[in-house]
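Run log // design_07
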């Protein structure tokens, strides 16, 4: 009986320690719950107890059970992570990010240049297919730019627009026709004299070649003449076909002249209405800029045509007077050719001057040809350094390299007509691009100033249920 109290005391002490341990574990569990989930290394974790087997579908002997897809609350909430022994696979970067920035910029610029080149190629093919119509219309534009100031002056004098247009157009066409007739008449009238002088000039050149230090013999000269004669005789069919082709070209030229005349009449009479109709074809967003660039381009074209006519007239008069006093035959037709070729910058002056020198060489000898060359070079120097800067001014100033390249490109695309049109086209394009660039800069500046001067937006009141 004496041991019963001591057993009861040890049992109570054991129960007290067990309660203290339970309290400590409860406190640790609450602390772990507040700190978050604990990541446990799966290799160090003890094997989990297998869940109790769920009743599966009924099977028959010799057949495997049919799996049943989990559904409802029994479906897994997430995909289990790969096992720790699986190899790591790096994610592939975006292909766009793998291309260097400079290469991306080059590719963007490249395909845009290809699209632009394709557009220009198609445009040139279309222009080549209808070259006669395009050249006739461009010639009409140039003639209109030359005659339009006269129409405006006659309107200010009180004449109706139709009468002013008719008077100006008829007067211009009559003057051009008289000039052409005068040139043909001079050539036909001096043809016999020219042929005799050419024959004498060839004999003089032959004597000069025999007495020259080049040691040319008479047999060599006769052989060259015989080769030329044989070449002409062997190519008779080609010459005949070229003559027939020349007839076709003459018909096309007459057709182009008629188209240019009709186009000039309509441009002089209905020019403003035609421009308004063209503006309607332009998108509305770009219409104000194009409407401002049009008058600028027209003033540039007018200044170019009037300045070129004045410069060409001065060149023709100066060179014509010079070769007339030097005794070169057909001085007046040569002066007219110099006037016409002056519309082709740089190249036209060289061709017309070379033609005058050749005529002087064949008809009057080497000394006279040298004097003609001096006259031509002097007039061309005065034209390049005095006349063109003073008359044309800064309105149509184009770099000489751009002039040479544009004349070459125009000649390759459309022959002589393309060479004539190339420089005014470049001048007008330069004016239009400069105006559009300035217009865009002014619009951006105006928008920035308007945004700075605009008052701050007032807060919008928000409606509540009490209101």
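design_07 sequence
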């Amino acid at each position: 009986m004496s041991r019963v109290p001591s057993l009861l005391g040890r049992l109570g002490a054991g129960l007290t320690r067990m309660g203290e341990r339970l309290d400590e574990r409860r406190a640790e569990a609450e602390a772990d719950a507040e700190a978050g989930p604990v990541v446990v290394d799966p290799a160090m974790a003890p094997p989990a107890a297998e869940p109790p087997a769920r009743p599966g579908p009924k099977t028959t002997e010799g057949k495997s059970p049919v799996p049943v897809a989990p559904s409802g609350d029994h479906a897994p909430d997430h995909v289990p992570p790969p096992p720790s022994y699986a190899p790591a696979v790096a994610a592939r970067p975006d292909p766009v990010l793998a291309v260097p920035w400079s290469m991306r910029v080059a590719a963007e610029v490249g395909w845009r240049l290809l699209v632009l080149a394709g557009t220009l190629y198609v445009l040139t093919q279309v222009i080549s297919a209808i070259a006669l119509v395009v050249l006739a219309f461009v010639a009409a534009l140039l003639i209109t730019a030359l005659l339009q100031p006269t129409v405006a002056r006659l309107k200010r004098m009180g004449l109706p627009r139709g009468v002013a247009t008719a008077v100006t157009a008829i007067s211009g066409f009559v003057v051009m026709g008289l000039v052409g007739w005068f040139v043909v008449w001079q050539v036909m009238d001096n043809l016999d004299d020219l042929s005799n002088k050419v024959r004498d000039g060839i004999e003089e050149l032959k004597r000069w070649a025999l007495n020259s230090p080049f040691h040319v013999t008479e047999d060599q000269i006769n052989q060259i003449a015989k080769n030329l004669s044989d070449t002409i005789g062997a190519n008779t069919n080609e010459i005949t076909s070229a003559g027939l082709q020349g007839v076709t070209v003459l018909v096309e030229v007459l057709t182009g002249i008629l188209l240019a005349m009709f186009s000039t009449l309509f441009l002089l009479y209905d020019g403003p209405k035609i421009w308004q109709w063209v503006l309607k074809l332009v998108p509305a967003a770009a219409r104000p800029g194009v409407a401002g660039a049009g008058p600028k381009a027209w003033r540039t074209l007018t200044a170019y045509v009037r300045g070129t006519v004045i410069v060409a007239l001065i060149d023709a008069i100066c060179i014509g007077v010079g070769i007339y006093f030097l005794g070169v035959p057909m001085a007046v037709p040569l002066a007219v050719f110099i006037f016409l070729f002056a519309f082709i910058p740089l190249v036209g002056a060289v061709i017309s001057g070379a033609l005058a020198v050749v005529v002087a060489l064949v008809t009057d000898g080497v000394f006279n040809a040298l004097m003609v060359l001096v006259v031509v070079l002097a007039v061309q120097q005065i034209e390049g350094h005095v006349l063109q800067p003073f008359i044309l001014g800064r309105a149509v100033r184009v770099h000489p390299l751009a002039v040479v390249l544009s004349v070459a490109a125009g000649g390759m695309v459309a022959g002589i007509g393309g060479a004539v049109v190339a420089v005014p086209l470049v001048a007008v394009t330069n004016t239009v691009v400069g105006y559009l660039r300035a217009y865009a800069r002014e619009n951006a500046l105006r928008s920035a100033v308007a945004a700075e001067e605009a008052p701050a937006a007032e807060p919008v009141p928000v409606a509540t249920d009490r209101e």
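The chain has 13 helices and no strands.
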